[in-house]
Design a protein that fits this description.
Strand content: 35-45%
Function: Binds together with bS18 to 16S ribosomal RNA.
Shape: globular
Radius of gyration: 18 Å
Number of strands: 4
Keywords: Ribonucleoprotein, Ribosomal protein, RNA-binding, rRNA-binding
Protein name: Small ribosomal subunit protein bS6
Largest sheet: 4 strands, antiparallel
GO cellular component, one term: ribosome
Distance between the termini: 56 Å
Helix content: 25-40%
Family: Belongs to the bacterial ribosomal protein bS6 family.
Strand order of the largest sheet: 2-3-1-4
Order of helices and strands: EHEEHEH
C-alpha cells in the first residue's frame, strides 16, 4: 500500500460543525474502502493566496493515509461532487516524505538545541 496526503479547502461559509461533518464524510469514504488513516490535521480558516469562487478564505484540512490506488479515484470523485469543496490536492508520498512526516509528528524539528558550556 502506498501512502498519500490529501489537502482539502472547504468553503468558508460553513459552520465549524458542518465542516467537521464534511471531513468525517471523506474520512469514512477512505476507511470504508480499506484505507488506514495515519494522521489528520485541521488547519482551520486560512487566507487564500488568490480568490476562489470570489472567496478570500477557506477552511483547510490535511489527511495522510495508506491505501491502494483505486481508493484515490473513488475519493476524488466524491470530492468533485461535493459543492462545499472549493479545491483539493492529493499527492503520493515517497519514502523520504513519509520519513519527514514521521519526524515532524514526533516533534524532532521543534526541539531546541542545548547550549554547551565552553571551558576556558
Amino acid at each position: 500500500m502506498n501512502q498519500y496526503e490529501t489537502t482539502i479547502i472547504l468553503t468558508p461559509l460553513l459552520s465549524e460543525e458542518v465542516a467537521k461533518e464534511v471531513i468525517a464524510k471523506f474520512s469514512k469514504i477512505l476507511t470504508d474502502n480499506g484505507a488506514e488513516i495515519v494522521m489528520e490535521d485541521n488547519w482551520g480558516l486560512k487566507k487564500l493566496a488568490y480568490l476562489i469562487e470570489k472567496k478570500s478564505t477557506g477552511y483547510y484540512h490535511l489527511t495522510e493515509y495508506k491505501c491502494s490506488g483505486e481508493v484515490i479515484g473513488k475519493l476524488e470523485i466524491e470530492l468533485k461532487r461535493d459543492e462545499r469543496v472549493m479545491r483539493f490536492l492529493t499527492i503520493s508520498l515517497n519514502k523520504h516524505a513519509v520519513a519527514y512526516n514521521d519526524k515532524k509528528r514526533t516533534g524532532a524539528f521543534n526541539k531546541k538545541k542545548e547550549k554547551t558550556e565552553v571551558a576556558n
